[in-house]
Amino acid sequence: MAHGYTMAAEPELSERFRAALDRHRGIVLKVAASYCPDPHDRADLAQEIAAQLWHAFPRYDGTRAFSTWMYRIALNVAISFRRASGRRERHVVGWDDTAHDVAVPADDTVAGERIAALYRCIDRLDPLNRALLLLYLDERSQREIAEILGLTETNVATKIGRLKQRLRADLSDSSTGA
Amino acid sequence: MELDDLKSAWADLARQLERRSALDFLQLKHAHFARLRASLRPLYLTQFVSILSGLCALGAAGLLWSSLPLPLHLVAVAAALQAYGVLCFVCAGIVLGRLRGVDTMAPVLAMQLQLARVRTAYVRTGLLVGLPWWLLWVVALMAAAALGGVDLYAHAPEFVWISLGVGMLGLAATFAVWHVSRDPRRARFGQALDAMLVGGSLRRAQAWLDEVAAFERT
Known about the structure:
The structure holds two protein chains of two kinds. By secondary structure, chain A is mostly helical. Chain A has eight helices and no strands. Chain A has one domain (17-177). In chain A, helix 4 crosses helix 7. Chain B contains nine helices and no strands. Chain B is elongated.
């Protein structure tokens, strides 16, 4: 695998990459948290995403939004990582506070419960719908979601509509079941 | 709980991740790329082995052709080796070509389809290169003997015919078992066989292709 840059250009490229990554590091963290409940796997995935971003950075087209480019790579890496590491999506992973270590902060139980509910919703989704949910919750525009996932805007709108219906049903089941 | 609460939860989660993250992106080292390259190595290594097998087959065929005139059975041996050599190159070329086509910067659906296709091509070409060995080992033995100055067929035609017969039976049995395993009534047997033959890779790759296509369609 060629790195696509010369050693002489590397320090300047590296600085630009670090600055860009630092501005958008939240994307890496959120994608990793959505696909890996286990903190160790999550850290591995975040590193893997960051490494792939660095590898692809020399080919980044500066005229396009960095966040869109970053989301594409992060989601591609996360889905492949998740599928390679045991195909846990095939089995419904039950809620586990110890696994989702970010979910229940000692200082805010309301926020903790909300995050726990969010994780339960995420856990029920397949990798592709999970990507859609993540982008929807991150309030990305339909145009941007379409560009990231490789769908038409109309298709994105339809899928988001269905996803919302499904989430409402899940949330109502959880509240009646509780 | 409502959808808006999920959005609030998402924002809470983002804040917590930022606060608690022990990740240090500034620690990225080249060593990490070695791990990335290593993850693709088995795929490349298998293609390297395939190309090497192809080269050996073509080399042996070339040596046999250079000894013309040959008896008819050795002409058949040289032709079989040459065909197998070309097959190895074509198969390796297909997988390497698809591997080169995988682009992490592509839209998610496009890239996931590319990956599933690489996996499918890898498993199918693996079978294509592997299955002929039911017969090819006899051909290889005849070629090696011929290059060593011994005409195996002339000395022990029974051995050659019996070995080819056993190989044909093995090949036929493999296809028969595979055909039976495709019967929807024997789905569990089919899954077990896939898992045994190709570690379930082809089935999983195909299932993933179907999943991506279904997500795109519905």
